[in-house]
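Researcher: Re-running this chain for the archive, since the previous output was lost when a drive failed. Same request as before.
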Amino acid sequence: MYEGPVQNLIDEFGKLPGIGPKSAQRLAFHLLQSEPESVERLRTALKAVVDGITYCEICGTVAAAERCRICSDPRRDPSLVCVVEEPKDIEAIERTREFHGLYHVLGGALDPINGIGPNELRIAGLMRRVGQETDGTEIAEIIIATDPNTTGEATSTYLARLLRPFPDLVVSRLASGLPMGADLEFADELTLGSALSGRRILSGERSRPQGSARVLAPEHIDTPPPPTEPTEPDPAEVEVSEAAIAESEVSWPRTEHRTEASAASRPTTDDVERSSNEHVDNPR
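Model: Regenerated structure tokens:
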């Protein structure tokens, strides 16, 4: 334990995410050994964040003006909106250089256990954006890019249900599965199952050959097969069947004939008793 302002500085650093007691102590002593100009720049930056931080009026991310640089860029496609949880998620998607639309920051994910519901997120702002035009263009697709965990999936399902009444709006979800360079043998069941369900077709048609596994359409589920109408037998087939039966009766004796012959050769009860008495009277 240190005394005075040094310990207070260590305690404040220790409250930051990812900073433990040792790391907080190293940061505090680093500032003590730094130049006064460096410490002053840090103090000015912290004060500017507290006093002058603003949020974009359109997407909700941190900005230096009323609109962020992405929403102010005319080269962006306003018909495509990607919904993320935090502003840091925007930078992760921007590093891919594959998305050229706009963003919408929710400010978190649904978490009823911690008291975070729809009113604590910027869901109402998203619904307003869907119902209006941006620079004369309506939103055609919304990509839900929440985290693939319990709260992120719950938020995705909730947003999809809210956006369902818009018939011309496409709602999609980021694919999840195997990362690039990974091995299948080290993938867990959930990750591999998600990769299988989100697979993409490289060549060929979507139709499957007969006998292979397929997904039943709603009209195929619980639908009984159509009834078959009884058909009249062919007279020629009936005559052939009767002739075959008559031939089999001539070739093979009837069952009752074999039964009578076997019954005649079978010993009766009187014969058994007579044999046992003779054995008793004349022992060997």
